[in-house]
Amino acid sequence: MKKATNDAAPQHIAIQGYEGSFHQEAARRFFGKQTVVIPCDTFRQVIQHTINRSEANGGMMAIENSIAGSILPNYTLLQKHPVKIVGEVYLHIKQHLLANKGVKLEDIKEVQSHPMAILQCMEYLETQPQLKLMETEDTALSAKHVAQRKSKYQAAIAGKLAAELYNLDILVPNIHTQKNNYTRFLVLKHEKDAQPVEGADKASLKFHTDHSRGSLAKALAIIADAGINLSKLQSMPIPGTEFMYSFYADMEFGDLNQLNKMLKKLEKATESVTLFGIYKNGKLS
């Protein structure tokens, strides 16, 4: 699958959150600026739109953050629905203090945003004790509310795209504490629409062993002996069992032949292997 070009028809992509969110920025990064987003309240709704092919061309779903870690429920969504990963985007998360045009910092009395965004900016916010902090469900929605109310006493914490879409000034840029804050987003398609990705060098899959002594070590040895880099290994409980686990793995490989040989050996050494997608490795920007 190739990224959209300016001449291609715009893709309709389901995202979690509102217009101006980091999900929309990730969708634009992959599909192009003309991408039409379908805002969803939950990740489950993103999946539902993605598998209803008449509603969306695909979905964009956050899977992990370099500070907060993995979004575990989203692994379950991948397992239970007919979707495939066709790409990924690593987005540098930059939080800004946004306000209406002409508003000065000394005018602000209240700052609103998603609880995680507030937490990410707490070091800066503690230098402004006069500000009342208000938690909301979404960073971009907070920016939208500030713009709609035209208040000079309210500000929002959100990204640059939200400032552009809602015509807000970036009053104070880059107020996040951790400067190397990245979120990894998965690009999803209905399994019937997922085409082979040119230049693919990464795969995501799930496997589980018989939980006998050394079974996981044997599986990992097969991956290592194939010369494949295991870039992530995430354990997930198997529903209906007593503390038994499956393993979600991200693997980086040189060519498909190398991957396919390894998968055949892994299938023989484990109880099951489920492939979620073969795609091109996203790059930190």
UniProtKB/TrEMBL annotation:
The keyword Lyase applies. Pathway: Amino-acid biosynthesis; L-phenylalanine biosynthesis; phenylpyruvate from prephenate: step 1/1. It is an enzyme of class 4 (lyase). GO terms for cellular component: cytoplasm. It catalyses: prephenate + H(+) = 3-phenylpyruvate + CO2 + H2O. InterPro entries: ACT-like_dom_sf, ACT_dom, Chor_mutase/pphenate_deHydtase, Preph_deHydtase. One of its GO terms (molecular function) is prephenate dehydratase activity. This is prephenate dehydratase.
